[in-house]
Amino acid sequence: MHQLKPGYLYLVPSYTLCGYHCVDSISQYYLHFSHQLSDGIKIFDRISIKSEVKALDIDYLLFERLLEINPDMALKYSDPNVYEQRNWTTNNMSTSSNSVQLETIGILKQLFSRFIEGKLNEKVNLKTQYKLTNVFQHIATHLYREIKLEELAEIACCSKDHFSRQFKRITGMLPNDYINSKRIERAQELLITTSKTQKQISEEAGFNSQQYYTRIFKRLIGTTPAEYRKMGGLI
């Protein structure tokens, strides 16, 4: 839980339950953006991020510039729960001019860069990083089924032990822990944006046991899937 402070930027990953409680009035910029890359991988899959950073003087100007060049892209609601329960990706910049799209993307990247924590481990060479990119993509597109360590190591063209070490060096997690975290993220999305049953969600997220799904969900999120859905507005 964060206590919002004046002059700070906050990053809330998608489908993370959030809400505001404020005794006094509050004025803020609220920016909603997609973080999926062209290869189907989410930016959070590759880097470590902070959730709270001090805003720079230029950041205020960047937000003002975003509003100036995108007058029709304003979010209509101040309650974040509204955006947790709907798909807003249809509100895109396809009708904007090329120059506006380019400048908007540049501003978004500049603001997002504030939250990046450190760099990729420089001891991992570019060839290994490229191979692991294929691994990340394979995981993202095959969450619905069992993913074996052997097949990931084969994609990375190395032994299982060597692959596990390199993977943890980059992500900070062992492959199985990383896969479970991605499955839980998928479950969070389905819990809040669909009315599918817990059984359907656990299967779609790639868990072969609903009991195991519930246990991992509570360990990583701190609540059961049912509690999470209720807090998100769906029963």
TrEMBL record:
Pfam family membership, one: HTH_18
InterPro entries on file: Homeodomain-like_sf, HTH_AraC, Tscrpt_reg_AraC-type_HTH
Keyword Transcription carried by entry: yes
Top-rank taxon, per record: Bacteria
Keywords: DNA-binding, Transcription, Transcription regulation
A GO term for molecular function: DNA-binding transcription factor activity
Domain HTH araC/xylS-type, residue spans: 133-231
Presence of keyword Lyase: no
Protein name: Bacillibactin transport regulator
Protein source organism: Saccharicrinis fermentans DSM 9555 = JCM 21142
The organism's taxonomic lineage, starting at the top: Bacteria, Pseudomonadati, Bacteroidota, Bacteroidia, Marinilabiliales
